[in-house]
Amino acid sequence: MIYTVTLNPALDYFVEVERVNFGVVNRSNYDYKAPGGKGINVSRVLKRLGHQSEALGFIGGFTGDYIKTVVEKEDIKTNFVQVAGDTRINIKIKSESESEINGVSPDITDEHLEQLQKQLAVLNEGDALVLAGSVPATIPSEIYEVLCKSARTRKADVFIDSSGEAMKKVLESQPTFIKPNHHELGELFSVEINEPKEAIPYVQELIGKGIQYVLVSFAGDGAILGTKDQILFANTPKGEVKNSVGAGDSVVAGFIAANQEKVSLEDAFKFAVATGSATAFSKGFADRDQVESLMKEINIRELERDE
Cβ contacts of residue 97 below 8 Å, gap of 6+? Predict the structure, then answer.
């Protein structure tokens, strides 16, 4: 079974305005609401790829009810821990440029964390745990490290998509897979990384820590996937980017889906990159037919490793 954990979900409120003018009333041309949170996104994409998962995390209030209702309507199982406050609302403004106003997360208590850990006690060999997104301020930043260690002890695979301190602290727990973008990889090592070849020594260092797969995305410039045996590069398919929300989460979902289907490493990498691109080229999330079509445009080649 695949379990996704979203510690800091949100109701995402998308607003499109021709131009933002401060100090006056602005009227939107278009708006819509959607469940937000990286782990939730992974569950929603997995479902579109033909794989069931169970969405876990913390929700509360009317906004939390909305998220739970929408996710369950998509036939995705949920087992969220209910908290006292309202799940945050993130406002995403689409105008001349994109801007965001992220809301404040509700308090998460020790009791809430204990509930989540009890839920994850069912993990076993063959299961996959996805820990994705930011960590609320009321939760210790080492929470991913704690959850990852516990899951790895139970021989479950752990997939991480986060950044900052939460990502730094989980690395020593030997997650199965991590997916930083090139900016996040640079932050881990306090360097600037602009192109794939510059990432190679840092990917090798992460692999040396016992991480099985390190996938680094470079947006339209492709992606690299490192393992202990090789470093692969994949180009990005051509298309019009319509949606930047959830593309990275789709890469994670695509890799997990391919991994569950036990395809070759190269095909898993292609499938992951194609899934991210399919979401970027859509107004919603990727669907499988589009992913399989885009795979035909992706070529994989091996990069030389640093000695």
Answer: none
Alpha carbons 222 and 202: distance in angstroms, whole number: 17
Tell me the pLDDT band of 306, cut-offs 50, 70 and 90.
Answer: low
The yes-or-no answer on residue 249 being catalytic is yes
**Statement: residue 307 has pLDDT above 60:** no
Contact 209, 177 (CB under 8 A): no
Using the structure block, give the residue that is written with the tokens 């930043």.
141
Backbone region of residue 213 per phi and psi (left: phi > 0; alpha: psi in -120 to 50; beta: other values): beta
CA distance 137 to 25: 32
Give pLDDT tens digits for 110-151: 999 999 999 999 999 999 999 999 999 999 989 999 999 999
Q: What is the pLDDT of residues 143-178, one digit of tens each?
A: 999 999 999 999 999 999 998 899 999 999 999 999
Strand partners, 160: 131, 178
CB of 64 closer than 8 Å to CB of 82: yes
- Domains annotated on the chain, with CATH: 2-6+38-86+105-303 (3.40.1190.20)
**Looking at residue 98, what is its pLDDT?**
80
How many residues belong to the chain?
A: 307
Q: Exposed, middle or buried by CB within 10 Å (0-12, 13-18, 19+), for 307?
A: exposed
CA–CA dist 164, 111 (Å, integer): 25
The tokens describing 163, both together, are 């950044």
Cα distances from 305 to residues 171, 193, 198, 214, in angstroms, run: 21, 16, 11, 14
Specify the pLDDT at position 297.
96
Among 86, 157, 161, 249, which one carries the catalytic annotation?
Answer: 249
Q: Return d(Cα 250, Cα 284) in angstroms, integer.
A: 11
Tell me the pTM.
Answer: 0.93
What does the alpha-carbon distance between residue 179 and residue 272 come to, in Å, rounded to a whole number? 11
